[in-house]
Each structure stands twice: as structure tokens, then as C-alpha cells.
Task: structure prediction
Amino acid sequence: MANQTIFKRYEYKYLLTADQKKDLQAYMETYMKPDAFGRNTICNLYFDTPDYLLIRRSIEGKVYKEKIRLRTYGRAQDDSEAFIELKKKLKDGTFTIDFCDDSLHTNGNLSICGGTYTLSTGDDGMHADGADQVYGGEITIKTCYEGIEGQNMEISGGTIDITASDDGLNAAGGNDQSGMDGFGGDMFSADEDAWITISGGTVTIDATGDGIDSNGDLTVSGGNIFVSGPSDNGNGALDYNGTATITGGTLVAAGMSGMEQNFGSDSTQGTLMMNLTDNQSGKITLEDANGNTLVSYTPMREYNSVVISCAELSDGSTYTIHTGENSREVTMEGLVYTDGEVTNAPGQGNPPDTQNGDRPQGDAPQGNPVDSSNEQTKEESDGQK
Result:
């Protein structure tokens, strides 16, 4: 993962003697080193309205809070580097928003800690030019172009249900633009500032574009994730340009195999990608050798590729996967394993190598563009801006 600029901070303060401080510093030198601002005084200047609305909202514990802060490290001089921060936080409450543009939008970071949100939009359900952070709450995005979009994304709690005409989750770089322009960039180049991290919560995605799309890394360490991806080979249920690692949680992602990706070899939890010879529909169920159901999910449309990861998957063990009315027995030949050949739709170009989850390097493959009906939807969305 690239350097993380957004984080949850927990502070514990202790009163130390001079000798204790010296001993602690000596011990910590083995593991840490002071940063460039370690010995500087942090100076903050907070901005507010003439009637002090921002600070009053914070003191009163309002549902919605925001702050604007100018920060320097050390006493500011004319040529000092300064950092300006815009923070917005929704803590609780019930919100129903139906809007032609983004339902929730910020030019900075967007944090959801609780509350209930029902969103309908012609563009993004939630958009942040910086980071999208979901720590709790219930978020239902009933209609949208892209569900949640930001430069990077952290989901550690809550319940998220997305129905999107393009991508469900999209981490990219740049400012907000609708449709095909989006955040832009080379479709096969990794952006170190773009990443998606999921460590908790329940995420359900119904997307006709990419289900989960990270222009950088994708990291899953917890939570329950269910993705019903596209019915064309121009998008995938999982799509990342950096690395993808899973160490915990439960995931089922169904779509078409032309652009599908498995998790990478650095994963410490078992993950199985199964490519089918024919399109299937109906419930997906994974059973162990004793017939116990480990995970099940019913996608919203046809699929011929499935990625499953759960704690019970292990190297060398045999499982049965039921897809609709069909069944297949699979023995894991490695902790990260792909079974079956990629089914490549006519006119889609050569599929990526997904045995280890990674896309091939180099220029984007040549071939016919994505299904024209999807292109029309994107153009129509552009016209709404």
C-alpha cells in the first residue's frame, strides 16, 4: 500500500520521569525514527464564521461537523510550508437524498461514523476528492453512476448496499468529473495515492461496471463483501492496478472472466478464482469436503467467473462449488488458486493473466471497446453534469 495520508488516531498520554523518557527513547530507536517534524512545535490556525458556527457545532455534538485548519510545523515564516485541511464528519441521523449530481460531495475528506443514508443520484452516491472513510452507519445507494468514489477509501464498519450503473467502489486520483472522463489516468498504471482498504462492515455491490475498482492497491483484512459484477468482458467484479491482498474477512465476487482478477500471492487467507465454461445464474455456494456450507451468495445477473475467499479455504483441501444448477469439485493447489480457463467473449481482445491475480504489464490491450450500451450510459451521465 502507498503511504497512507488518512488514519484514525488514538492517543494515550503518560507522565514520565526524565530517566523513563531516556530509557523509552533508547528502546524505541530499534523500531522507530523521528520524522522531519519530530522536534518542531505544531501551530494551528482555525477558521470559523463570524458567529462561530463551526466551533459551536463541534461543542454541541451536532450530527454534521466541519473544520478548516491551517497548520505549520514550527514558527511560520514567509517561506514556510503550510498545510490547509478541510474536514467534514457526519456522525448520526437519518438522511434521504435524491439529487441529479453527487448525493454527498466534498473537495476534501468524507467520513461516515453512523446514521442512516438512502441516496439516489445521477452521478456519485458519495464523492470525496480526498478520502472516503466509512466507520459505521447504514448506507443504501439505490441508483447512481458510481457508488463511492474518492482518491482513496477506507471501510472498517457499517453496512453498505450499492446499485451502480458503472463502478461500485472506485479509488482514483484527481478531482471530480462525471462519466468517462472520471478521475482519468492510464487504465493499467498504478497510482500510489489511490487505494481501497476494507477491514470490517458488510459491503454489497450490484455494478454493471467494475464492482471494486482501485487504481492502486486493494487490501482486505475483514468484513463481508459480496459483488455482483458486469455481464460483459470489458469490466470485472474486482479490478486493481497495483496489488491485491486478502488476510481476513469473507468475499464473493461474481462477473465475467475477460477482465476478472484474483488476489495476489502475498495474501495469507485462501482465495479461489473459478472460471466456468458457460454463463451461469443463481446462487453460488461453497461447501467443504463434509458438505458444510462455508459461504453463499446470489448474484443479480449472469456470470462465468467467481472469486471466493473465506477463513476456511486452505491449500490442499477439496471443496465443492455450486453455481446455479451446476457443481464442480476443486482442490486448492496453493493458497491463491485459479481453476479453469478464462472465457473470452468475441471481439474483447486478449484477457489478462489472472493465475496470480495480477494484470500484465505494458500497454493496454487493443480490441473492440466495451459494450456500446454501457458507453451510452456514460455519455448520458456526462450530459447531466
